[in-house]
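tool_call: predict_structure(chain=1)
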Amino acid sequence: MPSKKKRNGKMVGWLAQVRRQGVNKSRVCATREEALALEAQWKAEIKIEEERTTPTVLEWGNDYLDFSKKRHSERTYEEKRYALDLLVRAVGGETEVRHITVGNALAILDDVAERRSGYVANQVRKNLLAAWNWGNRYLDKWPDMASPFGKVERYSYQKRPRVVPPMEDVQAVLEIMDETDRAMLLAYLHTAARRDEIFRLQWEDIDFANSKIALWTRKRQGGAWEADRIPMTRDLREALLKERGKGNGHGLVFCREGGRKYQYRRHWIPYWCDRAGVPLFSFHGIRHLAASWLDAHNVPLTTIQAVLRHKSANTTAKYLHELRGVQADLDNVFSGQKAKVTESSRRGPCGPRPLTPPGIRFRTTAVHLTL
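tool_result:
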């Protein structure tokens, strides 16, 4: 109940107060009725808080984005923020996590798939599922239930093939570029770097004495910054030495006026491709070209893995397989099989058993089904 509040013996108002878990909350009001209403409001809020058993969507989302801001790249953080913003708009920020249903998840993802694409819907699904798993691991009072986002099946979409520009096109662009832009394009081609890795490259990352260059990335489990040190080719070393000799006065090797870091450079490659009269290629297309060029020259998989800086050789093998396509594998198997079967048929059924083509194992027991 409100009590009279006095100061120096004079009444100054009515004191509204409540106590929860040993902590007092109070405020001086002008009238007793105002103090009663405020106490009733506080008690209602306390009751709701005590009845609540799981975090709200807004609490969970903000906690996870705090974590993501520290651990992930800006692009990854923005993708996660977009996914959680969709969830808040759909179910409300004050909704408890335990009340999110598979129907809610399906409605959100269906809407994204219809408005944008199945690929984007899968990205949203992945980020919401990752946020759920993080909450399950780190937040108190997390509901003991399966993620509603994981129960929604992935969406189909038309996967675009990796576009690899011909080396002749890249060489044509290199020949007409000015020295600084040529050095930057060489850095992408000779290191197979991702776009932002060259944007953030600093002079202290380049070891001219040992011909090594350090590329910093967060594309690792945990999101911590890691430096991958790879060899520097003679051509790239000479180009970068010329750039260092110009002395731009900034820490970044390649930067905008005033030493500001590049963000996208959307018009850089299109401008030079247009001037060279070659089809447009992308930053990542250069990375594809570097990998396919090494593969075409029979460079060992372990070396290509080191250049691409994949932690797993399986990732590199899959990457190269997508670049080659399955045509080569089919040609190797079936053209070899045809040649050996033809040779065997000429020698008759009693001739020596033909050699088994690579990748095919013949059954030694009866064949029950045939094409």
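agent: Confidence is low (pLDDT under 50) at residues 336-371. Proceeding to next step.
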